[in-house]
């Protein structure tokens, strides 16, 4: 009797993990609806993260903050159960970022100066295959590098804006609010440099230099993804070259015959 009693919870737990695995990684209509709903919730959370500096003084801010913390915690637990190797899953960089974001939500007062990193949730979201599935379903996977480049740039802009607002908002810098910080970030990243807002001191100059260098790199990456010819990811069996033209018959590096699947008719 005791053996049967012990097996029942284990069986239910195994079924729960199997169900979550199907929901998070499956291709069935139910799984796709679940993934679409989760994506919409994630995007709404990201909008809240962007608006956090403007909403922090609102009376309902903490209630919303803890509600989102509960949602994110539930999502992390569910994704952990859906994984085949929990320890390996927890060592993934996007997961580590999500756990850190959860900590900033659970302790918004203690970690207020690091709250600007929450926007990185948008970057971790793009690490999920379900994020790109709508593009693939419509045969628009060629736009994935461009969309990824745009997202990387947006994440960088908002992370830097939050950092500038948190670290340099004072009368000396001319940054009186979040919009001023965003204005300075965009002007610096684009190397426009109007000079009406300047970060004070040596650390301000160093921060501006880093912002310009990384910002230019991201702009170049975005331009490359827009203007360079589209390549498919198909490793050459012989030399390992990762990307080829969609209609390539031979590898450009070694001449090996390729058999690239035609995804346009899936």
Automatic annotation (TrEMBL):
It is a multi-pass membrane protein. The keyword Methyltransferase does not apply. It comes from the Bacteria. It is found in: Membrane. InterPro entries: K_chnl_dom, K_chnl_volt-dep_EAG/ELK/ERG, VG_K_chnl. Residues 155-226 form the Potassium channel domain. Gene3D superfamilies: 1.10.287.70. The chain crosses the membrane at residues 36-55, 61-81, 93-112, 149-168, 206-223. GO terms for biological process: monoatomic ion transmembrane transport. Keywords: Ion channel, Ion transport, Membrane, Transmembrane, Transmembrane helix, Transport. PANTHER family: POTASSIUM VOLTAGE-GATED CHANNEL PROTEIN SHAB, VOLTAGE-GATED POTASSIUM CHANNEL. This is Potassium channel family protein.
């Amino acid at each position: 009797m005791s053996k049967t009693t012990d097996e029942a919870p284990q069986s239910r737990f195994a079924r729960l993990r199997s169900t979550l695995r199907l929901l998070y990684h499956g291709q069935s209509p139910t799984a796709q609806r679940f993934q679409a709903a989760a994506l919409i919730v994630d995007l709404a959370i990201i909008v809240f993260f962007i608006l956090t500096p403007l909403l922090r003084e609102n009376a309902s801010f903490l209630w919303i903050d803890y509600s989102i913390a509960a949602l994110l915690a539930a999502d992390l637990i569910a994704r952990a159960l859906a994984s085949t190797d929990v320890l390996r899953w927890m060592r993934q960089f996007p997961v580590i970022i999500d756990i850190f974001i959860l900590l900033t939500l659970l302790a918004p007062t203690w970690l207020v100066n690091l709250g600007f990193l929450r926007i990185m949730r948008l970057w971790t979201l793009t690490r999920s295959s379900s994020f790109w599935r709508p593009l693939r379903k419509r045969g628009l996977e060629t736009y994935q590098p461009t969309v990824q480049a745009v997202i990387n740039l947006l994440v960088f802009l908002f992370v830097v804006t939050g950092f500038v607002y948190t670290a340099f908002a004072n009368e000396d810098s001319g940054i009186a609010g979040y919009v001023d910080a965003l204005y300075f970030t965009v002007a610096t990243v684009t190397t426009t440099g109007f000079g009406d807002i300047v970060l004070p001191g040596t650390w301000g100059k160093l921060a501006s230099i880093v912002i310009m260098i990384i910002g230019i790199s991201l702009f170049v990456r975005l331009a490359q993804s827009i203007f360079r010819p589209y390549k498919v990811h198909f490793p050459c069996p012989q030399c390992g070259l990762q990307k080829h033209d969609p209609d390539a018959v031979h590898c450009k590096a070694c001449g090996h015959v390729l058999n690239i699947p035609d995804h346009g008719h899936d």
